[in-house]
Amino acid sequence: MHAAIDWIMQTSGNLSLEEERAAREKVSSYRAEKPDATEQRLAVEGLRYLLSVRVLNF
Questions:
Q1: Percentage of the chain surpassing pLDDT 90?
Q2: What is the C-alpha to C-alpha distance for residues 16 and 33, in angstroms, rounded to an integer?
Q3: Residue 55: helix, strand or coil by DSSP?
Q4: For residue 54, how many C-alpha atoms fall within 13 Å in the half-sphere facing its CB?
Q5: Domain count of the fold of the chain
Q6: 58 lies in a domain?
Q7: DSSP H helices in the chain
Q8: What mean pLDDT comes out for the span 7-24?
């Protein structure tokens, strides 16, 4: 899971501490719901979350 979170943080640009915390919580929550999810799936879910709150700075 840490690799997915690290990748999300690197890819997403500059996040505030609050935004980063929320993204980490979202990925952790998704992981708890789907324990068989791959790192790639976790990364996709984290980026999807950030897009949903329009935080990404691509």
A1: 0
A2: 26
A3: coil
A4: 0
A5: 1
A6: no
A7: 2-11, 17-33, 39-52
A8: 78
Length of the chain counted residue by residue: 58
Closest CA to 41 of 33, 31, 54, 32: 31
Q: What is the mean pLDDT of residues 41-45?
A: 83
**b vs e for 23-36, b when ≥16 Cβ sit within 10 Å of the residue's Cβ?**
bbebbeebbeeeee
- Domain of residue 17, residue span: 2-52
Decide: pTM greater than 0.70. Answer: no
Note whether residue 45 is domain-resident. Answer: yes
For residues 58 and 26, give the distance between their C-alpha atoms in angstroms, rounded to a whole number: 20
Check: CB of residue 43 under 8 Å from CB of residue 8.
yes
Rounded CA separation 28/22 (Å)? 10
